[in-house]
């Protein structure tokens, strides 16, 4: 039975309101209450997101046997057992596994890995396996007769695993350890006899071997300090992400969120591999997130109320693996919601058929506008590789949906996104202080007026350099300061001159990338003058440009040759389309004269390749978090391997006396004066304030990254003290800094404090137009109503 459209719209509004009442009741919930009847307001006031999530997911048990529509034909249930390329599968029958005598039974059944399994019900029964490698996984069965086992590694108790489950499921990942030192280790698993059942079994082990050089084998805390004569930078390897870090965004003073594609990551959630996680910046611990749809190659932004949205993605990959394997649903039209919390209980919320975009988008860019909403642009209608006229989605849309320019929430065509084929995925975009949006794709750029739907073309990039996927460069909106009157200047670095009409089999992983950086001030005079050309010390494709609180830019990651993606060109390294990683960062100073702005003096050299699907971001402490790299279809242990290790690049200011913010209001409105108490280093002579959006980072695109200097009556401490109260004025308008979260840094003689999160504006939700949403749902179909949307590409 089809529900009336009016009822569908009402259900949509109910879910939106419940979603956004989770942590910030003054935000989405209050905004929608102003539009809804009193009895509905009472309903929304007393609901929370996890109640809706639990109810929704309880009707969609995708894992362990349920086969969603569009899955593989044989309907086999999800099986976590997987052997990454470069790893070794150890069957339970191998003689190198030692079982305690007279207590185990060998069971044969085709549903087990390699058709066999060792099982025991004896208290104290054990198995021991001596292996050499950097990680190990234990696979077995869970079910109503299974109990508790203790796991020991190198003689230390490292886990207690309960195998009890209401239904039997085979080839389940029971326990795993990754990122061990490359050495000989001993795994010992003991049946305790405790729990609701007595059974323990061993189906298989998977041993991870290091696909790294000898100099990369230290996987604990590792410091690499520069020996240069300039100010000293430090590089430290610390922590692992659990899921490959394809997308990264700082969500609080202590946490960052990570999204990946659906694959066999070591981090587990609800008995299946996770493809989303929250990373604790203080403890390096990771918490898995239960993402419903495939977030491969999605974009993201915060909204004005502090909710993070993650949009677009990939369909279910039926040509390589299916929904019955992973349980994910089509992510092409998805909007995933996340409200940061303090209790470690917040999770991703999705309702793919109601909370969705109007059109399918893979490799999509998002930017926040001055009303706190999101402008969503471009992408491909299918997963694949290079964009083309058949799959191109050359349109804009908004979230929340808008009735604007005659399109009433439907996609708005863009001639620019047609003209820039083929290499135009993940377009570069920055919201500008005059309410327009700068957009770059392929070799071209424009200014987009979203209110009037007008495109103004800018001069083409010099020397034939392409800057968007798969000829991926990176970009940064340089600081907008009091001195430059908040005038926007854009810089774009790296990319490739490879012909985007050439078939992949004629391209090469050894084709040199570009070292070009171009810069333009986006005023009438600046645009007329054209692009100013500079050059990095080394060519880079897929670099990341990270804006620092002092206004300088650190460029990290990338390769010297090839292009982005995997599995497409000749001369692949493993599956990678790129080669020759660039291991040394470079610093860009925008205030230096042309030709003197780049320097690697004092910079350390990494030993971890960071190529396709790498990320980097400034974190509140002032360090740069570097993670990811996975030019592979699924988890791989051969070059270039799936990378989970995190590196921390520390600028020289991290080891200097720094300001310390003592008190900071939770919010600052536009033009409002707030008082901030700060302890300054002795002898401070000048204080400035940087307000930063740390951005949403993926595929070298730093969506919403921004630095705005705030005006300050910065009284220095009186004699005998270092503590003072600063009078800081909020941004002058919503155009200079769109409403939403920011991180405030106090700089003493150019040395920044740690950043503190602050809500800019009143924290209210962006404008919501229920009629526009109703039209979107009525005029477009959701992902479950579509077919033939392609598979997972590079």
TrEMBL record:
Biased composition (Polar residues): 776-794
Keywords linked to the UniProt accession: Signal
Tagged with keyword NAD: no
Every Galactose oxidase-like Early set domain range: 658-760
Glyoxal oxidase N-terminal domain: residues covered: 274-653
Signal peptide, first to last residue: 1-21
Any Pfam family matching the protein: Glyoxal_oxid_N
Matching SUPFAM superfamilies: E set domains, Galactose oxidase, central domain
The keyword Signal is assigned to this record: yes
Name assigned to this protein: Copper radical oxidase
